[in-house]
Write a structure and sequence with these properties.
The complex is a heterodimer of chains A (737) and B (233). Chain A has 737 residues and is α+β, with helices and mostly antiparallel strands. The N and C termini of chain B lie close together (9 Å). Classes of the chains: A alpha+beta (737), B alpha/beta (233).
Amino acid sequence: MSKNEPQITPDLVASHGLKPDEYERILKLIGRVPSFTELGIFSAMWNEHCSYKSSRIHLRGLPTKAPWVIQGPGENAGVIDIGDGLAVVFKMESHNHPSFIEPYQGATTGVGGILRDVFTMGARPIACLNALSFGAPSHPKTRHLVSGVVAGIGGYGNSFGVPTVGGQVRFHTRYDGNILVNAMAVGLAESDKIFYAAASGVNMPIVYLGSKTGRDGIHGATMASAEFDDSSEEKRPTVQVGDPFAEKLLLEACLEIMRKDCVIAIQDMGAAGLTCSAVEMGAKGDLGVDLDLDKVPTRELGMSAYEMMLSESQERMLMVLKPEKEQEAEAIFRKWGLDFAVVGYTTPTKRFVVKHGGDVMADLPIKELGDEAPVYNRPFIDTPKLPVIHARDIEAPLPNVDALEKIIASPDMCSRRWVWEQYDHVILGNTVQRPGGDAAVVRVLDGPKGLALTADVTPRYCEADPFEGGKQAVAEAWRNITAVGGRPLALTDNLNFGNPERPEIMGQFVGCLRGISEACKVLDFPVVSGNVSLYNETNGRGILPTPTIGGVGLLDDFTKSATLAFKRAGEAILLIGETQGWLGQSIWLREVCGREEGAPPPVDLAAERRNGEVVRGMIHAGTATAVHDLSDGGLLVALAEMAIAGNIGATLDAPPPSIVPHAWWFGEDQGRYVITVAEDQVETILTKTTAVGVPCVRIGATGGDALAVAGEHPVAVATLKRTFEHWFPAYMRGETA
Amino acid sequence: MKSAVLVFPGINREQDMARALTLASGREPAMVWHADTALPADTDLVVVPGGFSYGDYLRCGAIAARAPIMDAVRTHAAQGGLVLGVCNGFQILCEAGLLPGVLMRNSRLKFICKDVHLRVERSDSPFTRGYNAGQVIRVPVAHGEGNYEADDETVKRLEGEGRVLYRYCSPEGELGEDSNINGATNSIAGIVSEKGNVLGMMPHPENHVEDIMGCTDGRGLFAGLAEHLKSAA
C-alpha cells in the first residue's frame, strides 16, 4: 500500500463516522489494519445512507410483490408492467442535508440523482415530482431555503427537459434546522429492455462514462448519515454541483448505446460514487473488480485514490460493455461530447482491487463490503397514544366561513402556484393534468394510456400516531390517484426520520413502517423502490416523521380522468365516505384554535378501498363530472378548492343535526371524496352506493359566484381565489412573515 | 411542408416540435444534428426548437449560434427560406444575427412556466395566416430569459415596419404590466426579420396543438405555415 497515506488512528476512524465496534468488525473481516483508502471505502459502504443498517430489518416486512411488479426494491429504481410491452420505472430519493447547506445545488443534485437512477435502468424520464418540507415561515432561513430549493429543482428539471408535474410543500417549525427535499422521477421503458447493475462474465471491460471526477461531494453520504449542529455550514464543500446539460447528454448517450445493445450492466455513480457503483456491479454479479484509477478522467490534478473513490461528482456512470461493442459505444459517447474510459475489468476473484500510480491502494472482499455491513436492531419504544378529541368539547372561535378564509390563507394550505410556475410542467406535451390537482396525469406515448402520479404524506398524523400516520400516507396517495380516475399500481417510499439511535425515533420509524405495510397489503399497492433518510435532526431535535409516499397509477384511457374543478352550474354535490367530524390533528384545530393536539383520524382501509372503487367507477362511466379527495382542511376546504378551480360557486346545505357544524365542515375523517354529478343521476347513485355499503349524501349544488353555506354569509369565489393565491408570493416578496 | 428541426446538445423540446409539425402537415420533419453542415435538400422550413443548448452556460443561444449547421441556416434564410425559432430557438436566432435584439433575464428574475395570452398583430405573414389580426390566443411559456430588448432605433424600426407579430396581452387583448410576464419591451413576444421570413418567439405554440393540453390555440401557427407552403409550391 502507498506510503503517502495517513496513519490510521482512532480519531481518523471516528471522523469517518465509523463506531469503534464497527472498526473492530473491519479488522476481523480483513485480518489487518486497513489502508486510508480502504477506510474511506468502508465508511462509504457502511454509513447509514448506503447500508441501511438501522432500517434494513424493518424494511423486510414491506409488501413488494404483485403480478405487475417487474422489479422491486434493491435496484436503482422499481419497475412495473403497464401492458402493451411497456414498463414504468420510478423512485423517490431525499437530498435533505445538502439542500439545507446549499439549497440550489442540493436540490439540483437531488433531482439529477433520481433522474439517473431511472435512466440507468433503460427508461426515458417522463415526469418528476417532489415533496418539500421547510421550517416555519418566520424562521430567518426559511425564505432563502424555499427560494433556493425551488429554483434548484426547476433549474435542473427544466434544463434536462422533463416536466415537473406535482408534489407537496409544507412548513413546520420542526424542519427549521433540517429541511426535506424528496425528489421523484418516473420513466418509461420497454418491459423486456430493462437494464440492471449485476455484471456478468470475467475479464469484461468496465467503462467510465459521463463527466470528469472532481473533489466535490467527498463524504457526502457520510454527512447525510450524521446529525446537524451549528457548525454544519462548514460542510458546504461536501455538497456536489449539478450540471443538467451533462446529464441530458448522458441520458441521450446511454439510451442510444442501450438501443444498440452494447450494455451488459450499468450503474450510476450516486452516493459514494465510484466505490458504491463498482462494488455493487461486482457483488451483484458474483465477480471481483479491478480498477485502475490512472484511467479515471479527472477534473483536477493530483487527486489521490482516496479522493477519487469517495468523490460524488455528478453525471457519471459505470458500465460493463459487450467487448465486441466497445468501439461502437465509444463513438456514441464521443458524439455526445462525453468522457469514455475503460477503467477496469471484472475478475473471478470476488475481490475489489483498486490500483493507483502502480500501487495497490485497496484490496478487499467485494461481497462482504456490502453483505457484512453492520445491521442493527436498534431499541425502540412505541409512541404513546394520544387522547381522542371530541368535537363537542371544542367551541368554534370563528364562523365557519371565516375559518375557511383563515385556513386557505395559511402557509400550509394556500396555493402553491408560486412554486410550480417555476417548474416547466408542460414540456414533452403529455401533461394532461397539471400541478394543483389531486394527482398529475401524464399521457403515455401517444396514448390512450395515462399515468396518475402523486407524492404525499401527513407528517403531523405520523408524529401523533406513527401506525395510523403510516397507513394514512399510503391511503392518501392511493386516494389521490383514484380521484383522477387512476388505478393505483405501486409506490416508492422516502422515509425521513430523526436519529435512529434514540428509541423514541426508532419507535416512530417502526410504527410508520407497520402502518405502511398494512395499507399496502389491504390496498394491493406494493412498494417497489425507496430510500431511507435518518439523522434528520439539528441540535438534538428531530423532524416530524415524514415517510413520503410516491404513488403511480394507471389510466387505460387518459381522456377518462377527472379534475377537481366544478364544471357547470346546477349540478348536485355528493359527499362519499363516512363523516364523524374528526378534529384531532386537524388543520382547523391548528390554524383556527392554535392547537396541535389529539389522536389523528384512523384509516379504515377496507372502507377506503370500497369508497375509492365506487368513485373510480363513476369517473370511468362519466357520471362524476368533478372529483376531489378530502384531506387537509376537510370538506369545506375541498369545496372551496373546487369552486376556485372552476370559478363557479355552490350552495351548501346545513350539516346533519347529529354533528357539530365545524366538525362537519373541517373534520379530517379519511376515505372521503366530493364529487359532482348531473341532478338526474343523484337518485340512481344513492341507490347504487347504498347497495354496496358506501356512504353517500347530497350536500348541495353548484352555481352562482359565491360559496353559500346554509346559515352563514356567502363568500364570493373571487374573494376565495384572491385569499388562496395571496400568501405565497407575498411571503416570498418579504411582505409577510 | 418539408421541415427540418435542428438538434443542438441540450435542446429538449425537439420532440414536442416534431409532433406539432407532423400533426399540421402529415409529414415528419427531418432531425438535423448541429455538427452537420447542410440541410436536407428542398427543406422549406427550418425550425430551431426550445431547450438549453449547451446548457445555456455562456449566454443563451450564444454557442449554438456558432454551430456548424448555422451557416446553412443563414444561407437558407438569405434565400428567403422560412425559419422559425421558439424559446431557445429565438435566443439562438438573435445570437446568430438573423434577428435583431436580445433576450434578457425575466424582469422578476424567475423561470416562468404558465399559459399566457398573445395578441396576433397581423395575419398577412406565413407565421400568422392561420389567425385573424387582433385575435387573442393562449399558449404556454417556459423560460427564464425571455425579456426582449433592443436599442431604441431597432425597436422603432420593428414597430414601424410591422415586424412584431405576437405580443403578451390580457385575455381581452389589452397590453399592460400584468400581462407582460417577462418585462419585454412593448410586450414583444415574437418578431420577424426584415424580409419577414424568419420568426423568433418565446412562447410554445407547439405545446398547445392537441386537445389533451386543454387548448389547441397553437395549431393556427403550424396550419398557417403548412398552407402557405402548399400554396407557394
